[in-house]
Records
---
Amino acid sequence: MLTRSRRIWDVIDHRVTDEHLVLNRRRLLAGLGLGSALAVLPGRPRAAEELTAPELYPGSRNPAYVLDRPLTDETIATTYNNFYEFGSSKNIVDAAQALTIRPWLVTIDGMVETPQELDLEAIVRRLPIEERLYRHRCVEAWSMDVPWSGFPLKALLDLARPLGSAQYVRFETFLNPDEAPEQLQSWYPWPYVEGLTVAEAANELAFIATGMYGKPLKKQNGAPIRLVTPWKYGFKSIKSIRRITLTDQRPVSYWEELGPSEYGFWANVNPDVPHPRWSQAYERPLGDFSSVPTRLFNGYAEQVAGLYAELEGEELYK
């Protein structure tokens, strides 16, 4: 069991806000169109059919990961979303419901001893689910505080036994323009790709989320499986993962390829390094009209600063 002394930012945990708003089914069907509406079986909503092992959530709360400010209201966190496969606005909830998330296979390959192709349901029943409270900081200077459910990234990678020669972990999301029409736009480098070093992936904070707010992930939040790296800007936390590849070549991430002058491989949070078009010194918590100072590594410097001690000359903060 993980034990440690309380850190300066640790406080008594907060209760998770109970869900008090659910998706309006009529609005959902209208947003999906007739074809998707017909796919819903009479008397049994499609969303209910696609839930994966809901009885496993939220999992035991891990007391090592708590917050010093209240959790973001669930309604806000599940309706204000970036998911460019479904549109460039924050209002992609309806469009994202077109994504089929069950069955969902995750491939782990590359520089591993035992490549794996695993069904998500097999994964969540094999790896113990726990709940962690994490800060989330978007590069756009808004933030939220979320109760994620899932398991350490390292635990998932260990199923395939990575080789010692692997240096990076490359993540790739789904590619299905029939369900995600923005993937038809040729100027975007689909599918969405992200990457970490093996050392980052093995860090205690690197987390695979399959749930939030005590339930399986909603589609707009990256269902059914996403990465969470709370010391980095949010675009690093790739959604709807299909493939994880161990490699000795540094991956070129989606936003790095799209805008290399603004977005890099590392993307660690730093209030003293502005984005080319705005300051990163402050952030706006969702649901709050005020702003608060941004923290180095989003407040997780104690756990991750050592990862970058010998990387002088690297652009670690974009």
---
Amino acid sequence: MTAIHVRNLSESVVTALRERAARHGHSMQQEVRQILEAAASEAPPREALPPLHLTTVRTSGDPTWNREEIYGDAGR
């Protein structure tokens, strides 16, 4: 089995891993191994969805609001 060495971990990370391992009843090495295995087995991110194309629909009657009231930009 392949081994890795992780450098420059802060003491707070090592302490948190040690405490987490103790809560789960594992050695710190087993805890880190499980964390890495879980991360490696996550499904890859889905491809981005295509952009939405919105359509404005005019209804009957006059609106009771205007663009400036909503956006505050005076219609740019």
---
Amino acid sequence: MSAVVVGAGIVGSSVAYHLARRGVEVTLLEQGPAPATGVTGDSFAWIGGSGVDWPGGARDLREYVLADYRRLEAELPDVTLRRTGSLSWARTPTDDSRLGPGQFVIGRSDIAALEPNLRHPPEQAVHTPSDAGVDPTALTRALVAAAGRHGARVLHDTSALSLQVTNGRVEGVLTSTGLHAATTVVLTAGTNVPGLCEPLPADLAIAASPATLARVTAPPGLVKTIVACPDFEVREVREGDLLLVVPQVEGSAARERAAQDTLHHLKTAFQGGDQCRLLGYRTGSRPMPAHGPVIGYATHDRSVYVAVMHSAICLAPTAGRLIADELVTGRPASELERCRPGAR
């Protein structure tokens, strides 16, 4: 078989890598100048159970996430997770019955031990020791580079314009650089997928959900874990470089105020926070399928396959492995049963 993968974000890069590793002839198309130039690069990239919603079929993939990341770390030396664990708390005490696997309620003294710079630790918080963070851009580029080493052809600055249909069957992708033929087209381009799939008989309800992230310079080690509290979510991406989730508001002036207000909350919460400085912020448009991940064939003749999901950073290594196995062997992956287009 041969495959054209549309979109070199985290999902497309994972699919291309896993297919190329299985010996498939792969062409990876990206409209930007480099991998991860779209929404992937604007992700908070919280890997684990407590920072992610698991709607629909995502729940069936959840148990494999950490194992697939460990596998990628072994396969790709440039991939490294920051295994810091996470702390999260709300304005009201946590209901123990709502805890997920590997989560624990801890008290103020344990919180202070994990986050010694926190000025006023809450009475209790949920601690998830296995939670981690990853640099989504570095991860995506590592996957693309590895796909290339396994023979994949990677094309940047190449916009997918439409699917090439001959006698009712999709035979490739017509792009700004010409036609790229393949036996299977894999669409992973997030919110752009419905436009490409519009003439196809598939239910692809994919909403666009804006999210704003601020980059902050800070004293190294100011934040030790992934912290999610009522006023902000923050984690250290690398030494002295923080990612800060900004509440979503409309308008550039309102976003600037929201970024500054959230930074103020961070400064107030941590000793040494007065040294934090806002480097900038960006708003990305995340694909949010209405009923969880959409993964599977979009046509009866199996010439088009779609893979769109949230949270893509969490699920991409697992989804890429399962998709490649499904495409290569022709056997449906039972783990993806509830992710099929049109599934409810």
